[in-house]
């Protein structure tokens, strides 16, 4: 497929000048960035060098992002369209150079630290793929867990690349999610192959099922594959899974894992190789979930790869560049790293042989030798409990941790009006300007919004026109990676909380870097969880829901603060 090298000339869209580029006979890679600059592109030496960052302008320019490898023209556009972003966050300062370098990456960083935005900046800074025929190809594929996060990427791209630069983003970024006809999305990919494709795993699998699905997504030639919110996409069982959890993982694989497995069947990665039991495990003292599993558990996990029906890592070929695999999440724990390194060998970190081809970046402090902190310290956490001392008469109180009794409330699929009354009370009491209510996935979004409006709360769906004060309402399953300017997040019901990992991502919707903050500075934020309490016959006792919340707070190292109730 790839044979002798040839020399051809790739014309710049804006400058109209021909730039000589050394390319493979089938695919050329030119640093063509018509969406960020009117200047002529720089040429790359060969296909492998497409992973090198474009050099900043002499002197580094006035923009801090130029020092990370982002082209000066894109930095200028960033300053013009998002002037409040003056300095990269710590996570961005680590992630951007890592993506621009020829290696695989796993990043764990706090929610709201700009991981997804850094991914977009780095991918826009990478060169385009130009085939020998002159047609462009897909350079990067970004897989996200929800339509909302995909739309957020598109909004960022349009902000960075306004219509005055490019009328249509189709040649730069395309989003493929359910909600639009499959054939229309496929036709757009065929007609205008974008630099970056962003999609959910279910829709990407549907595209791959087409006769030319692999071609239009560029599976055989793309340079970078990003799994944003990796743990949500792969849905791996915990450190000590039950037999049922292991069975569900093997038999009913998550769409994100199925997609990654199909890509790994045909593409080698930079750090891929033989599965090695210690891969992904840190040395030294580890804390909490990072503690290394016992020897017999590691051996079972290692041998389990034979029964997992997952593709083995392919060896790298000198005839074609490897695929860069980038995985990011606020909760990328040892289970994920062990799966990628020890069970599959797709992305191996913490090994001597992969120290130049993979990076493990931990910005949370959970690794050995750092001060642990899963959630940003700027977030205040509270838990309100809604008791029902008499039928239809809810009463709100702060959480207690006394002996538990079964939680009193309606079935999980029904909208809990008592909890919504408690939410309306807390909304008014806290003086919320911009809040987000996260409700269980089984609740009706429309019914919840209608019920809140009847209680006098200015509620609306995310994305709807609004004015302050406002309370946006969203199901908890769609909250991953959502970036909004908020001062309060309300988590409604124990079913929305689920567990400590899910709570981490829900709570991370607040205290995010935005127009009123920059660099490593975060605004203060408040997360209020509302759970059901006890019924009339168990007044004074703690419900099982608040006992669950106490355990989650303890696991995350969070001290919940009581709210002054009037």
TrEMBL record:
Record's compositionally biased regions (Basic and acidic residues): 283-297
InterPro entries: DEAD/DEAH_box_helicase_dom, DEAD_box_RNA_helicases, Helicase_ATP-bd, P-loop_NTPase
Coiled-coil positions: none
Residues covered by the Helicase ATP-binding domain: 96-350
Disordered: annotated segments: 274-297
Molecular functions per Gene Ontology: ATP binding; hydrolase activity; RNA binding; RNA helicase activity
Pfam family, any one: DEAD
Keywords for the protein's UniProt record, in alphabetical order: ATP-binding, Helicase, Hydrolase, Nucleotide-binding
EC number: 3.6.4.13
Highest taxon in the source lineage: Eukaryota
Enzyme's top EC category: hydrolase
PANTHER family to which the protein is assigned, alphabetical: ATP-DEPENDENT RNA HELICASE DEAD, DEAD-BOX ATP-DEPENDENT RNA HELICASE 47, MITOCHONDRIAL
Protein name in the entry: RNA helicase
């Amino acid at each position: 497929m790839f044979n002798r090298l040839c020399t051809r000339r790739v014309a710049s869209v804006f400058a109209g000048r021909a730039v000589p580029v050394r390319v493979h006979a089938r695919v050329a890679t030119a640093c063509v960035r018509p969406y960020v600059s009117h200047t002529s592109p720089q040429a790359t030496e060969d296909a492998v060098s497409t992973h090198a960052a474009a050099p900043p302008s002499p002197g580094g320019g006035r923009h801090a992002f130029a020092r990370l490898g982002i082209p000066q023209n894109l930095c200028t556009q960033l300053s013009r369209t998002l002037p409040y972003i003056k300095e990269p966050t710590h996570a961005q300062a680590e992630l951007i150079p890592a993506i621009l370098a020829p290696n695989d990456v796993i990043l764990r960083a706090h929610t709201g630290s700009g991981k997804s935005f850094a991914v977009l900046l780095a991918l826009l800074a990478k060169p385009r793929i130009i085939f020998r025929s002159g047609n462009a190809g897909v350079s990067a594929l970004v897989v996200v867990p929800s339509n909302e996060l995909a739309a957020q990427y598109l909004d960022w791209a349009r902000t960075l690349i306004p219509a005055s630069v490019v009328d249509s983003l189709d040649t730069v970024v395309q989003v493929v999610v359910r909600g639009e006809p499959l054939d229309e999305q496929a036709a757009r990919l065929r007609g205008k192959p974008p630099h970056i494709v962003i999609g959910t795993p279910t829709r990407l699998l549907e595209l791959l099922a087409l006769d030319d699905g692999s071609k239009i997504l560029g599976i055989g030639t793309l340079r970078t594959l990003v799994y944003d919110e990796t743990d949500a996409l792969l849905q791996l069982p915990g450190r000590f899974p039950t037999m049922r959890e292991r069975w569900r993982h093997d038999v009913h694989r998550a769409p994100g894992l199925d997609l990654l497995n199909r890509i790994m069947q045909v593409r080698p990665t930079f750090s891929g190789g033989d599965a090695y039991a210690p891969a992904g495990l840190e040395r030294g003292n580890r804390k909490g979930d990072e503690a290394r599993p016992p020897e017999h558990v590691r051996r079972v996990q290692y041998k389990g790869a034979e029964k997992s029906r997952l593709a083995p890592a392919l060896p790298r070929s000198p005839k074609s560049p490897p695929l860069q695999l980038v995985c990011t999440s606020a909760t990328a724990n040892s289970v994920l790293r062990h799966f990628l390194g020890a069970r599959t060998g797709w992305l191996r970190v913490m090994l001597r042989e992969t120290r130049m081809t993979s990076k493990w970046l931990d910005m949370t402090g959970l690794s050995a030798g750092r001060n642990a902190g899963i959630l940003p310290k700027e977030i205040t956490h509270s838990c309100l409990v809604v008791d029902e001392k008499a039928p239809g008469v809810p009463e709100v109180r702060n959480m207690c941790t006394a002996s538990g009794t079964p939680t009193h409330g309606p079935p999980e699929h029904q909208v809990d009006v008592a909890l919504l009354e408690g939410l309306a009370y807390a909304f008014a009491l806290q003086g919320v300007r911009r809040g987000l209510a996260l409700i269980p996935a089984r609740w009706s979004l429309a019914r919840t919004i209608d019920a809140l409006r009847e209680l006098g709360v200015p509620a609306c769906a995310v994305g709807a026109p609004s004015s302050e004060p406002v309370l946006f309402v969203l199901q908890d399953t769609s909250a991953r990676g959502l970036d909004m300017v908020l001062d309060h997040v309300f988590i409604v019901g124990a079913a929305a909380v689920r567990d400590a990992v899910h709570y981490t991502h829900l709570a991370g919707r607040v205290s995010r870097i935005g127009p009123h903050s920059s660099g490593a500075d975060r605004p203060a934020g408040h997360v209020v969880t509302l759970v059901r309490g006890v019924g009339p016959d168990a007044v004074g006792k703690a419900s099982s829901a608040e006992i669950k919340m106490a355990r989650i707070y303890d696991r995350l190292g969070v001290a919940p603060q009581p709210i002054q109730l009037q």
